Amino acid sequence: MELYVKTNETHLISDLSVKAVDTDKNINDKQLLNEHFHTHTKEKPYSCIECNKKFSLPSHLNVHHRTHTKEKPYSCDVCGKGFSQKGNLLTHFLVHMDEKPFSCDLCHKDFSRKQNLNEHYITHTNEKPFSCDVCNKTFSRKSHLNMHFRAHTNEKPFSCDVCGKKYPQKRYLDDHFLTHANEKLFSCEVCGNKFSYKRDLKRHYRIHTNEKPFSCDVCNKDFFQRNHLNEHYRTHTNEKPFSCDVCNKSFSRKSNLNAHFRTHTNEKRFSCDICGKKYSQKVDLKKHYRIHTNK
């Protein structure tokens, strides 16, 4: 066998019946060998015309392209759910069979996919084997790395059918779509309050349980939500990352910047439902209410 590898040139193979270097995999087709060889050289000659993302195999490019076209050629015979890859359909079918053949030998949790079991193992080892080539941030799952990488490429393959807004992750699109439907599907069993997002319901539950899982490592103050902890932490660092474009005044919270900005636009979005008087900030409306309640 003669094999020549040159930069930006095609691999030349003289014998169609060859054995790939470094493997025992027999490949009888010149094109397949060329494609397989890319897995060793890390060469990615196949580029997406939509976002320029590159792939080593044309099959991988075809699968990726479906994220742009929304094509889902594989559908479940039981529930009709569509999938862009046949492997995902086969895995989904296990949901209907309730079959979970892969078991963790440490905690005995069962999984329908071997990939999910492998990812689960990392929760025991705390290993983060997937690293971003741009910023070196590490991740425990390849899917998390792929989602993170879109922050660098600004790739947003998931778009809203209603308004066209695009998102880097499907879950963000799903959350956004509820704003059009105005659905509040998640209801609190304690007080009946309803929410559009499941994560908001989980946060709300902490009001009833008084759970405050986020603690400041400086003063040990506890908070219901992580973003509240982040905002509080700036009281220690005096960091003010949100700056007004008009007067350059800085704020530790984005909500404070938004409230301040209305002093420039004279926008008064908070209205008294008793007398109709309007205010630019909610805190001023609350003060005004005391006139009506005599408090």
From TrEMBL:
Keywords, in A-Z order: DNA-binding, Metal-binding, Nucleus, Repeat, Transcription, Transcription regulation, Zinc, Zinc-finger
SUPFAM superfamilies named among the record's database cross-references: beta-beta-alpha zinc fingers
SMART domains found in the cross-reference section: ZnF_C2H2 (SM00355)
Domain of life assignment: Eukaryota
MF (Gene Ontology): DNA binding; zinc ion binding
UniProt-listed PROSITE patterns: ZINC_FINGER_C2H2_1, ZINC_FINGER_C2H2_2
Compartments, as annotated in UniProt: Nucleus
Domain C2H2-type, chain residue ranges per copy: 46-73, 74-101, 102-129, 130-157, 158-185, 186-213, 214-241, 242-269, 270-295
Role summary: May be involved in transcriptional regulation.
Listed name of the protein: Zinc finger protein 235
Originating gene: ZNF235_63
